């Protein structure tokens, strides 16, 4: 009982302090009574329907914001608001603007607050926003298949070839995998941090990214330990399989983030930019299949077609789910979160492979060999070149 | 800087009894209306260009401004505080005006407020109207937070220019401008304190009309002086840069975006109409007026009684002005707007509504 009381005393004092601050507002004394309000509006989601634009807005500034007028392409336009036009801190509203937008062309939506402050959102290429109906479900599934499942599967087909390679070539292949993954790691991290910067400040995007990545890393570490424990009781020495599964899971999580990016490109009215993106991801992701089977080939294990297919599905199918989520319920927060999880997962896989490679010697000795260095370099180069198609 | 908002505005004007009577709680009324959310839902399936909602009815009234000069929109007792005319021995008038500068937030589109600098609490400032040969005496009192001045277009000696170094009127100070009304025409006045762009686009300008003296001594001096009688309207083309990036967000004629689109200007078929059109638009090189379905006679700067051309579109540079005369032939709505589509869609569009004459 006394322990509870001791825990509560600081809390009670804190509450009292908050009351004092809110009541007498020392911040106001600093600001002065006629200081203009700090207004900030973030565009959350934009939906294009035939003859109408809907935008979801979030006030992520400290002061209330009152939306006075809307201009589309430098013209005042009528609108209705779902949730009123006065937004408190972190309040949202959706504006419906009956505007005859032109497919394939650019538009600019500008929101003017009561003080005349303007917030703009550009639609680079206007395309009707998909609604969750059967057709778009199908389209997103197809995109997911093209980008995720099929390329990964094709990459897996290198397995028989790789199995016939000499041992030294295997070192090269594992190093190649590390190179590929390291590229994805940097790529995913930069993309995730970029998205994090775009989040409303209240969501603290960078912190969110860091924590989600660390969480994913630790979670996969646990899963790996559990898998190894299970496998070792069944068949000794199948560490190559465990590693392949872990890589597939890591790549799957990464592909979920990619699917999200593609789906959300549609959601944000940038769908027409998506085709090149899809071609790029398709080529890019073939190399991911390679990464998954490399440890299996090195161990020289027998793997059934069914097992290979399983690995391919683990690595590829999340792309479809990501595209669904990105396309239908997109919010930038998801983007940051899943890119972070992908980064954490890949980091864990890279560590796994390096551990695997260095079982027989010191890290420096194994990594500094010719085949390994060549593999690392080749992995990076392959990703870099195919990545040019995406960026 | 918009240091003075409504509260400090009231504080300042509490000292100035002159000002208190004209300017009320516009900001309050506007804010109260804001809370109700968006008032007007467009008809389903139609695309509706223009502003949403209406400005507070107790603020600046664009409909009144059209026909207000020499404070004739005020009750006689109230009017006498701002305007006085005395006949001089030669039959001309001495016209005395009380003008003050004040900071004030004005509603330039429904729910959209602009931290303006104003003459007598309004943008454009009160229209000053004299007859050729009258003596104009303007007592200008600066109740604003920055130095200001009044610079009149028309004949005047340099001491009355308001633009030369040292001619700024400091906050709290008063200066009396005095000159003969000459030449007849349509002119304007504006603050000429630097930085000029800011002092003008913040709202310190107004129309200055000098009527020609009647050509025959027996003809009465009507509202239009020596011009034939007509329904007369003052239109000042202006714009507002609400984000202070040297580009205008809102365009209008007489300040309030789309005001005359929501509340058309009433005219009568067969009755002459005269428009006093002034362009003070800052940042954009020109502005224009185009009237649908009609043509008008153009008197550039209003300095001649013979029209220089007939057109349905007139372009004016900043500071240029023209008198337009026409007569509506058909009843119904006639759109008028800037023939720069951008300006028109950013608020500078209105309607005339012509009605058959009462018989």
Sequence-ordered SSE layout with sheet pairings:
The complex is a heterodimer of chains A (391) and B (359).
Chain A: H1 2-24, H2 26-31, E1 41-49, E2 52-59, E3 65-72, E4 76-77, E5 80-81, E6 86-87, E7 92-97, E8 107-113, E9 118-123, H3 134-156, H4 159-163, H5 167-198, H6 205-234, H7 239-267, H8 274-299, H9 305-316, H10 318-328, H11 332-357, H12 363-367, H13 370-390
Antiparallel strand pairs in A: 1-2, 2-7, 3-4, 3-6, 3-8, 5-7, 8-9
Helix pairs in contact in A: 3-8, 3-9, 3-10, 5-6, 5-8, 5-11, 5-13, 6-7, 6-11, 7-8, 7-9, 7-10, 7-11, 8-9, 8-13
Chain B: H1 6-15, H2 17-22, H3 26-34, H4 62-66, H5 76-79, E1 83-87, E2 93-109, E3 112-119, E4 125-131, E5 135-142, E6 151-152, E7 174-180, E8 185-190, H6 196-201, E9 205-211, E10 231-240, E11 250-253, H7 259-262, E12 265-268, E13 272-279, E14 286-291, E15 296-300, E16 309-311, E17 313-317, E18 321-327, E19 332-337, H8 341-345, E20 349-355
Parallel strand pairs in B: 2-5, 4-9, 10-13, 12-20
Antiparallel strand pairs in B: 1-2, 2-3, 5-7, 6-8, 8-9, 10-11, 13-18, 14-17, 14-19, 15-16, 15-18, 19-20
Overall pLDDT metric of chain A? 81
* H-E order of chain B: HHHHHEEEEEEEEHEEEHEEEEEEEEHE
What's the number of extended β-strand segments of chain A? 9
Low-confidence stretches of chain B: 1-45, 219-224
Structural class of chain B: mainly beta
Largest β sheet strand count, sense and barrel closure of chain A: 5 strands, antiparallel
Q: How would you characterize this protein structure?
A:
The complex is a heterodimer of chains A (391) and B (359). Chain A has 391 residues and is an alpha+beta fold. Chain A folds into two domains: 41-123, Immunoglobulin-like (Sandwich), CATH 2.60.40; 134-390, no CATH class. Chain A contains 13 helices and nine strands. In chain A, strands 3, 4, 6, 8 and 9 form a five-stranded antiparallel beta sheet that branches. A four-stranded antiparallel beta sheet of chain A has the order 1-2-7-5, with no helix packed on it. The mean pLDDT of chain A is 81. The radius of gyration of chain B is 20 Å and the shape is globular. Chain B has two domains: 6-31 and 57-211, Cupredoxins -  blue copper proteins (Immunoglobulin-like, Sandwich); 231-355, Cupredoxins -  blue copper proteins (Immunoglobulin-like). In chain B, 14% of the residues lie in helices and 37% in strands. Chain B has 359 residues and is mostly beta strands. The A-B interface holds A 33-34, 36, 51, 66-71, 74-81, 84-86, 98-100, 112-118 and B 2-5, 7-8, 31, 34-35, 37-38, 40-42, 45-52, 108-114, 240, 242-243, 249-250, 257-258, 342, 345-347.
């Amino acid at each position: 009982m006394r322990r509870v009381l001791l825990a509560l005393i600081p809390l009670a004092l804190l509450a009292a302090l908050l009351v004092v601050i809110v009541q007498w507002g020392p911040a106001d004394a600093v600001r002065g009574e006629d200081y203009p309000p700090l207004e900030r509006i973030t565009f959350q989601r934009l939906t294009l329907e035939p003859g109408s634009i809907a935008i979801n807005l979030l006030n992520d500034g400290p002061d209330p914001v009152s939306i006075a007028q809307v201009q589309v392409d430098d013209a005042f336009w009528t609108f209705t608001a779902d949730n009123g036009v006065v937004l408190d801190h972190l309040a949202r509203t959706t504006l419906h603007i009956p505007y005859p937008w032109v497919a394939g062309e650019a538009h600019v939506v500008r929101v003017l607050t009561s003080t005349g402050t303007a917030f703009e959102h550009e639609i680079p290429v206007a395309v009707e926003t998909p609604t969750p109906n059967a057709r778009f479900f199908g389209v997103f599934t197809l995109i997911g298949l093209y980008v995720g499942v099929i390329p990964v599967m094709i990459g897996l087909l290198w397995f028989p070839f790789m199995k016939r390679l000499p041992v030294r070539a295997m070192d090269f292949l594992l190093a190649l995998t590390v190179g590929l993954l390291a590229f994805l790691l940097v790529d995913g991290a930069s993309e995730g941090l970029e998205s994090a910067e775009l989040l409303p400040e209240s969501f603290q995007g960078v912190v969110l990214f860091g924590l989600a990545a660390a969480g994913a890393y630790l979670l996969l570490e646990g899963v790996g330990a559990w898998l190894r424990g299970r496998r070792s009781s069944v068949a000794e020495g199948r560490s190559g399989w465990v590693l392949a599964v872990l890589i597939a899971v890591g790549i799957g999580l990464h592909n979920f983030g990619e699917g999200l990016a593609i789906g959300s490109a549609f959601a944000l009215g940038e769908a027409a930019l998506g085709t090149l993106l899809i071609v790029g991801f398709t080529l890019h992701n073939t190399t991911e299949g390679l990464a998954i089977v490399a440890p299996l080939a090195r161990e020289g294990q027998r793997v059934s077609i069914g097992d290979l297919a399983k690995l391919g599905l683990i690595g590829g199918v999340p792309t479809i789910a990501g595209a669904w989520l990105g396309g239908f319920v997109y919010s930038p927060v998801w983007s940051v979160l899943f890119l972070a999880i992908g980064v954490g997962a890949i980091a864990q896989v890279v560590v796994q492979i390096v551990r695997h490679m260095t079982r027989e010697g010191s890290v420096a000795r194994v990594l500094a060999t010719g085949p390994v260095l060549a593999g690392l370099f080749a992995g990076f180069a392959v990703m870099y070149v195919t990545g040019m198609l995406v960026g | 800087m918009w240091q003075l908002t409504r509260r400090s505005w009231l504080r300042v004007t509490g000292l100035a009894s002159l000002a208190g009577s004209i300017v009320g709680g516009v900001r309050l009324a506007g804010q109260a209306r804001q809370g109700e959310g968006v008032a007007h839902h467009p008809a389903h399936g139609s695309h509706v260009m223009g502003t949403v909602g209406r400005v507070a009815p107790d603020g600046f009234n664009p409909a009144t401004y059209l026909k207000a000069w020499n404070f004739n929109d005020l009750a006689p007792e109230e009017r006498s505080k701002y305007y006085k005319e005395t006949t001089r021995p030669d039959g001309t008038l001495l016209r005395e005006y009380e003008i003050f500068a004040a900071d004030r937030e004005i509603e330039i589109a429904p729910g959209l407020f602009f931290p303006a600098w104003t003459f007598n609490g309004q943008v454009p400032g009160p229209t000053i109207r004299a007859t050729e040969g009258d003596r104009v005496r303007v007592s200008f009192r600066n109740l604003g937070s920055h130095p200001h001045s009044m610079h009149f277009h028309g004949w005047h000696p340099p001491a009355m220019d308001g633009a030369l170094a040292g001619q700024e009127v400091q906050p709290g100070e008063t200066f009396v401008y005095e000159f003969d009304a000459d030449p007849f025409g349509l002119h304007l006045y504006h603050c000429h304190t630097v930085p000029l762009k800011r002092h003008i686009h913040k709202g310190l300008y107004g129309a200055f009309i000098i009527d020609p003296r009647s050509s025959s001594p027996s003809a009465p001096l009507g509202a239009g002086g020596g011009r034939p009688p007509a329904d007369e309207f003052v239109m000042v083309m202006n714009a507002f840069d609400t984000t202070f990036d040297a580009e205008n967000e809102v365009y209008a004629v007489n300040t309030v975006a789309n005001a005359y689109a929501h509340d058309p200007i009433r005219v009568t078929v067969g009755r002459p109409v005269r428009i006093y059109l002034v362009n003070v638009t800052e940042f954009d090189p020109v502005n224009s007026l185009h009237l649908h379905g009609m043509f008008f006679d153009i008197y550039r700067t209003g300095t001649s009684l013979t029209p220089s051309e007939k057109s349905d579109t007139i372009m004016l540079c900043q500071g240029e002005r023209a008198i337009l005369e026409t007569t509506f032939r058909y009843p119904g709505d006639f759109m008028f707007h800037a023939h720069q589509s951008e300006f028109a869609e950013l608020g500078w569009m209105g309607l005339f509504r012509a009605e058959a004459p009462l018989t």
